[in-house]
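agent: user wants the structure for Glutaminase GtaA from Massarina eburnea CBS 473.64. delegating to structure tool.
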Amino acid sequence: MRLSLLGALGAGLLAAAQSTFKPARPPSIPLAVKSPYLSTWFAVGSQGGNGGYLPGQWPSFYTGQTIGWTGLIRVDGNTFTWMGAPRDVEAASQVAFEYTSTKSIFTIEVDDKVSVKVTFLSPLTPEDFKRQSLVSSYLNVEVSSLDGADHNVQLYTDISAEWVSGDNNAVAQWDFGEVDGISYHKVWKQNQQLFSEVNDRAEWGNIYYATDADGLTYQSGSDVDVRGAFTSNGKLTNTKDTNFRIIQDNWPVFGYAVDLGTVGSSVKETLFTIGLYQDQAIQFLGANGQTILPSLWASYFSDELAALSFFYQDYSESNSISSALDSKIASDSKNVAGDNYAVLTSLAARQAFGAVQLVGTQDKHYLFLKEISSNGNTQTIDVIYPATPIFYYTNPELVKLLMDPHFENQESGHYPNKWAIHDLGTHYPNATGHADGNDEHMPIEECGNNLIMLLAYAQRSGNTDYLKQHYAILKQWADFLVQDSLYPANQLSTDDFAGHLENQTNLALKGMIGIEAMSQIAKLVGQDDDAKNFTDIAHDYITQWQTLGFNAAEGHASLTYNNASTHGLLYNLYNDKLLKTDLVPQAVYDVQSDFYRSVMETYGVPLDTRNRWYTKSDWEVFCAAVADTETRDLLLGAIVKWVNDTPIGTPFTDLYQTNDATYPPGLEFKARPVMGGMFALLIL
Ligand SMILES: *[C@@H]1O[C@H](CO)[C@@H](O)[C@H](O)[C@H]1NC(C)=O
Ligand SMILES: *[C@@H]1O[C@H](CO)[C@@H](O)[C@H](O)[C@H]1NC(C)=O
Ligand SMILES: *[C@@H]1O[C@H](CO)[C@@H](O)[C@H](O)[C@H]1NC(C)=O
Ligand SMILES: *[C@@H]1O[C@H](CO)[C@@H](O)[C@H](O)[C@H]1NC(C)=O
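agent: tool returned. relaying tokens verbatim.
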């Protein structure tokens, strides 16, 4: 609360009222977050944010780049802003903010006369691929009288051409039209560059901003003209600007005005949708060589207007599916670990799903993932792995759809190494593989992750055919773990920013649990000799590991073998509980639980002794999930405190300093899908 007030003051925005924030004050608020390329947020933390007040600051892409999205309202002839920071318009007063897993809801009071409730819904329908495939989001605005009197009200909103490129010198083009009674502004980058990015933004596809409001007028033109027309007249000119130009040349905007007429105590509601339509989504080197994969929505709808019309008219159904998921996540989280835990799961949901997109056809589809911000890699295994808890929880088939491209690529001989590949492409949306074998090698990490994810998927889906189908390559990876995981060679773990190390205790543990997972996979497909062999090896290794990696006198696992002065989060223990492999004795869990309490800082437990302060919240939650109740609650409480206090203004980071809640210097991880790992407790 203190920080949010300071943030508001810092931005020179001392609103008359102060807003509440429930269930927490997040670092950044998701507005329209549906895919790696539709990812519009609202910065809160003081580093770039204004404390979370929708009137008075522009929304931004997850990178921090401004995205023009404006809301104005005219009450009895006086105009106020409810979203964004247009020049010369007074900001209305935000009094409340609340988020759920799928919604961000702002309550704003205008001139003490009317109340505006603004709901951003980015639907999550993980079991319904037709709906989930649409890269679109809702903005619903409800207006009612605040003081009991009737008021004359007009509502306004626009988007700028900043939605269509990461380069404000790019030329935008636009059009206006109608489908099934729904009006739309269509905006695109004139020079379409398929599969290209500038500043992480897609340089191809069409943005549609749509509404079917009664009493509607529209206009495209410069920000000054279009907003000025509304402020002066309460309506727009129903005209199109045809001077297609660069995004920042007299900023073309695409506006709607809605005459709500007399507004009394009953609520008047207006719905808008914003969506990105790209027919072609991914380049993929798979079983059929290099192919182009369409967006999955394209196989459910004849064209983008049909998709738009469906999405617009689906609000009530989509809202009810999303609301049911909101309630389930909140109540399951509270039941498992209390109110604090729901703060984290609800904040992570849209972010995790916002890094993936359904692509392909109804017959053969995939879920592609962008690593986001740490780099732009496609389908990174050690980013998929920490994210999977949210996918097991909402629909385990999503894990199969993330793994399918990996099997296709590697089983078709497109990767020369005997261990598992790190990612399927250096930059999303290209999943063109690493035929030269020169990916970022994390051999034990990725072999272990794959075996663990496959068994966890089979346990939750019952799909043992999938294990049979991929048995040969799974065994190849398990053989590698047998060779390398007792004494891990000098290599990277997923925490690559910390560098290479030999004999990493936590990495060895992942390898050993991976071998035990292979034993169970073998058992499930009737390969009993393999099952016996792999479990014998895993048990032999884990016995040795307890001497090599554990220091009984110091009372903790070491970061590297036989080095009592080192320690770290032993987060790979989580896998033993996830898979119910029961490989590691309970004493190890107990010792680590006690130890974490002894090294707890203000915002959590540091990752390992290579760095004094930084940690990873996904791994802290993995540790919390298998710790005793006291340590679990301390860890979750520290992350929630971080959420409320951090000065960071970009989306939920997994990497931060445990002393002052900032980013580690030069390591700004933001909006990464790994926050799906917040769901780790819900799947045990
Ligand atoms: C993807 O590959 C194409 C070439 O096929 C290239 O033009 C494009 O820049 C690549 N995209 C990214 C984001 O690197
Ligand atoms: C057990 O597995 C290891 C590693 O894959 C292999 O080298 C060994 O031959 C196997 N032993 C038996 C008896 O199958
Ligand atoms: C790794 O551990 C083994 C067994 O303790 C040891 O022989 C080897 O020297 C260790 N390597 C390093 C770099 O500490
Ligand atoms: C133990 O680890 C520390 C920190 O990595 C290192 O400086 C030291 O040399 C290690 N000691 C041994 C005996 O390997």
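agent: one observation worth passing along. Residues 487, 502-503, 548, 561-562 surround 2-acetamido-2-deoxy-beta-D-glucopyranose (ligand 3) (CB under 6 Å).
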